Amino acid sequence: MADHSGAVTSASRRERGVKFWRVTRRVCQLAATIDISFFFLFLFLGSPILAWINVASVAMYTAAYYAINRRQNRLAIALIWSEVIIHSALGTLMIGWESGFHYYLLMFIPTVCISSVRPGTIISLIVVLWGYYIGLDILMWFMEPFQPIPSGALLGVHLFNLSVVFAMFAYLSFFYMRMVVSAQRKLQRLATVDSLTGLLNRRHGSDLAENEIARFRRVGHPVAFMLLDVDHFKSFNDQFGHGTGDAILTEIGRLIPAQLRVQDIAARWGGEEFLVILPDTKIESALASAERIRVALRSNDWKQATGESIDVTISVGVSEVCANDDLASVISRADRALYRGKAGGRNRVEQEGELQR
Ligand SMILES: Nc1nc2c(ncn2[C@@H]2O[C@H](COP(=O)(O)OP(=O)(O)OP(=O)(O)O)[C@@H](O)[C@H]2O)c(=O)[nH]1
Q: Which spans of this chain does the record mark as coiled coil (predicted)?
């Protein structure tokens, strides 16, 4: 089987990138809105310089927003970094460390970590940020702010800045958590599901089959197995092409579970071979299920599913787990029954040991 892991990794990286830029665009909108409210607040407080700094900030966030829309991502990042670095420094220098403008610098830590840059770059950026933050802190120990505002207003600005940074941290953490959970789900799906049929893949099917055999040993509830194989499948490939062959397998992946109970487990076992595990099922009921599947395939509208006027049939071998069975032995009995079905003319269900139909 071809190794698609490289393609999968780059696809998930691309998707992570798309989400990252979507969030960054939202952050630009939010930051611009906050800066507009700061403009009016500082005008009200009689600090026109600080008010006009916020106008410049709104312009930078708007430019960054449109840069992301035009996929000029480097420009967008440069604008956002510059805005936060300059604005937090100017706010601190003008009205003091207590203004809390420096908290915005801390936002870079999660932002840098969830962007797609290399670990070495992340560490360097965080070290530079740390130096800048500490430098600003030390500077403010030795100098008075250029344009102090009344202490009540200073407290208000401090609390507002602190709250915004809290909210942004929460938002980024939530976004990151959602990204991790969705990546985990995708990986789990890739590791357990057959991409063509949507059924479980062989490895996961084997694991669940082993579990059922272990459960049989523990509690003694019956477990039945079916091996299903498409008849003359090669001829469909040869006559109509691999695409039609794939469409047949996909349709079978839809038809088999439709005939099963929720607790039954269907897996793609090989190319055109499927395994069904029926927990709490004696062989008689398993034969009835197998027969239902056989009839459902036989009477399916294959023209609609594949675009070709074809008849698709399957042969099925059924076995039931007995004492001292392992996966190999119970599958091998189903396989022998399946082989008898093929030898007996195909399109039939066979039980281990004796002829069923
Ligand atoms: N289109 C398609 N073909 C597959 C896939 N996996 C396996 N095959 C083909 O399935 C065919 C299986 O052929 P055979 O093992 O000879 O079996 P058959 O033609 O079904 O004959 P019987 O089982 O004896 O009825 C081979 O030609 C494989 O190339 C797949 O994912 N897609």
A: none
